[in-house]
Write a structure and sequence with these properties.
It is built from no helices and 4 strands. By secondary structure, it is mostly beta strands. Strands 1-4 form a two-stranded antiparallel ribbon. The two termini are about 20 Å apart.
Length: about 60
């Protein structure tokens, strides 16, 4: 079987309410607050999915890197 592609988290800023709950849950600290909203550094993200479930508005999802 071929290896599963690496996945990273992405933020839908149309849904995100910038509560920041996901930020301290990210082990590599890949989620950053910017003036334009939250972003995920795709280079740093390890795909651990720890940020997905706690998001109260469902603004985070995993995509192929």
């Amino acid at each position: 079987m071929p290896p599963k592609p690496h996945q990273v988290a992405v933020v839908d800023n149309d849904l995100c309410d910038e509560c920041g709950l996901c930020m301290p849950l990210c082990p590599p600290e890949a989620i950053l607050m910017t003036r334009k909203g939250l972003i995920v550094d795709r280079v740093i993200c390890t795909g651990c999915v720890k940020c997905i479930a706690p998001c109260p508005v469902g603004a985070l999802e995993m995509v192929d890197a």
